[in-house]
Amino acid sequence: MLNAPPGTPTDIASALVGLEDGVHPCEVCCNLTAADPCRICGDPKREVRTVCVVEHPQDVLAFERSGEYRGRYHVLHGAIAPLDGITPDQLKVRELLARVGPDLDEVILATDPDVEGDATALYLGRLLTNLDVKVSRLAHGISVGTEIEYADAVSLARALENRQEFR
């Protein structure tokens, strides 16, 4: 910063202040946005009958980079972590449940494949199975390009558990 052109630190400070004032959760999906609804929720070309539930806004960016998912999202802003004092009440669970209705066919639980993400998916799965919507969870296992001899035990176990019939 000391070598930056004059005014650069002030410009950066102004941009950071602008973030606080201009960015807020989308009224539909709870993703961070400067407009309501966000760009994804406002896109008429998106599949509206499927919602992919993620923990953080950066997870939405990861799915968007893949180009494989064309539905809508719901951002929880965290995962259940009792040891850290994070309970379902602190997440955007009520907002997710409010979105479930006759216009929604499937909820994809795309939480992280760790203890907190699994606990969150299990909790949401139990809530959602009482409603009239299909609930699915992302498959877990060995990453593409990984050699089996270097895979950890949990990934191998999940890969076996989530195996599919060869066709």
Describe this structure in words.
With 167 residues, the protein is α/β, with parallel strands linked by helices. It has a domain at 48-161: Dna Topoisomerase Vi A Subunit, Chain: A, domain 2, CATH 3.40.1360. The protein is 34% helix and 13% strand. The strands form 2 sheets. The chain has a 4-stranded parallel β-sheet with strand order 4-3-5-6. Strand 1 (24-25) and strand 2 (32-33) form a beta hairpin. The model has no long low-confidence stretch (mean pLDDT 91).
Average pLDDT, rounded to a whole number, is 91
Helix content: 25-40%
Count the beta strands.
Answer: 6
Strand ordering within the main sheet:
4-3-5-6
Oligomer designation: single chain
